Amino acid sequence: MTLDNDTDLEGQIAQWRAYTHRRRELHHTDTEELEDHLRSRITELTESGLRDDEAFLIAVKRMGSLDTLSREFAREHSGRLWKQLVLPGEPDASTGGHGRRELPVMVLCATVAALAIKVPAWFGLDLSDDATFYARNLGLFALPALAGYFAWRRQVGPRVVAVLAALFAVGALGANAYPLADDSQSTVLTAIHLPLALWLVVGVAYVGGDWRSDRRRMDFIRFTGEWLIYFSLLALGGGVLTAFTVGTFEAIGLDAEEFVSGWLLPCGAMAAVVVSAWLVEAKQSVIENMAPVLTRVFTPLFAATLLAFLVAVAWTDNGIDVERDVLIVFDLLLVIVLGLLLYAISARDLTTRTGLFDRVQLVLVVSALVIDLLVLLAITGRISEWGFSPNKTAALGENVILLANLAWSAWLFLGFVRGRLPFTRLERWQTRYLTVYAGWAWVVVLAFPLVFDFA
Amino acid sequence: MHITKDLVAASATPLVLGILTEGESYGYAILKQVNDLSGGQLEWTDGLLYPLLHRLERLGHVESYWQTPPGGRRRKYYRITDQGRAELAEQRRQWATVVDALRGVWGATTQSISPITAPAWETGR
């Protein structure tokens, strides 16, 4: 047996191992056990005179197809797929010895987040009377705790911790230093944009300070989608809990409403921010991610809706009515289209060829582009008529940012569908664009009040 | 001779438990022994032995542990438990009953069939 032969066999076995690792039904230890079997079989076959590659083929064949195998394993260990959802990963998984302290640290961070929203109350700021204060600072209650959780989990260095702390401090300043009136447009804009900016700061902690890496950024995008899903699920459960709390206490003549609105809802929501993140981390790679599945379902539906809308616009010859609320709806629509694109990208197997789904995706992006252009026309019309205001400028900026993203995405996507450009180009474009969102969100929070004279 | 899937599946548990009564063993060795015992007639898909072993472990009939021989690979060994021995005894009783019944019915048919077929056979010659 030559050395070359040996490494060849090792390569084949490594490939086989990679295939088995993709099966969720097979645990790491199962793979190890099967590999031991495979190697024993190969040794026996080579000793009886077969060449390495022949022995490998026969051994794999005798092992049985992976489909049958994982089905049998799934039948035997049906609990496995579910249990792992809440239990921290296997002790031998790559959590870096964090496994045992994972739960207490998460509980600690969630508690900090939950109590953070009650801190202002000690200084006499009431949740219902000073609602705008809470709205402006919404991102500052739970997100520092979440960033702390990830800083601990990824064991980031002191420099990254310093950067995180500085960014949160800047956020706190931006939210509270300016003399904004409660009903000013800037207050609303800060309430929307500061959580966004701080969420991307959490992203820095999530990637363990390695924010230049495209791959890690993509991981953060994936995380965001999964987190949203878990958060919505927890919110649903919280709704049920709230309803029962109010209902049962009412039955014995006690009014729980104050407790619910003062403690249960705000503290629960803040804690859920951290708990959702922990759930995403804990179940990572155990269950198929949900966001790409939802993307698959909704991409064709959204594409059909947008096309129908465009046909209706052309048919009736109606321009888009430029009321403010309507414009916000279109902004949200573009965000959703972008999200669908992002999650399709994040889950795509880079080696598969283009298919029907990619074409549907392209239709979706292009029709969103056309709609975005119509909206942009409407906004510029409104601005030339009434002049710049914080709201309109923010809407204009967001539209331009989304338009640039979607336009270049469409171009790259077209190149990909026609087989001229590799898919990674599109992936890289999206991950790099995250900095644009971060930059814009900070500009709106920090510069807009100054530019528009605290309007 | 091809032995049907159902029969292979039904005999798998007593075979594995029986082999493990002779001493602890690991997957590949168990499979080799099944092969030797049946003269190569009882063919299993290699991989499917492991879900079976894991099931026996879950039921408490066997227990497993990992061991690394010096200079070797980590390997998972299985050992039969007292409960497993009881299960094996029970299965042996069941199999004995089935085998007896089959013997009885086959003995009866060969007796009843041979007198009829034999003359016809001989007259044909």
Quick synopsis:
Chain A: InterPro entries: Perm_prefix_1. Chain A: The chain crosses the membrane at residues 105-125, 131-152, 159-181, 187-207, 227-249, 261-281, 293-315, 327-347, 359-380, 400-421, 433-452. The complex is a heterodimer of chains A (455) and B (125). Helix content of chain A is 78%, strand content 0%.
Most residues in contact, chain pair and counts: A-B, 21 and 17 residues
Strand residue content of chain A: under 5%
Described by the principal axes of the CA atoms, the overall outline of chain A is globular
What's the arrangement of strands in the largest beta sheet of chain B?
1-3-2
The helix-and-strand class of chain B reads mainly alpha
Quaternary organisation of the protein chains: heterodimer
Number of strands of chain B: 3
Describe the structure in your own words:
Chain A: Keywords: Membrane, Transmembrane, Transmembrane helix. The complex is a heterodimer of chains A (455) and B (125). Chain A has 455 residues and is mainly alpha-helical. In chain A, 78% of the residues lie in helices and 0% in strands. In chain B, strand 2 (62-67) and strand 3 form a beta hairpin. At the A-B interface, helix 2, helix 3 and helix 4 of A face helix 2 and helix 3 of B.
Keywords:
heterodimer; A: mainly alpha; 19 helices; B: 125 residues; mainly alpha; 3 strands
Set out the fold topology:
The complex is a heterodimer of chains A (455) and B (125).
Chain A: H1 3-21, H2 28-47, H3 52-63, H4 66-76, H5 80-83, H6 99-116, H7 119-122, H8 131-136, H9 138-154, H10 158-176, H11 185-206, H12 214-251, H13 257-283, H14 290-316, H15 324-346, H16 356-386, H17 390-417, H18 423-446, H19 448-451
Chain B: H1 5-21, E1 25-26, H2 27-37, H3 49-59, E2 62-67, E3 75-80, H4 82-124
Antiparallel strand pairs in B: 1-3, 2-3
Helix pairs in contact in B: 1-4
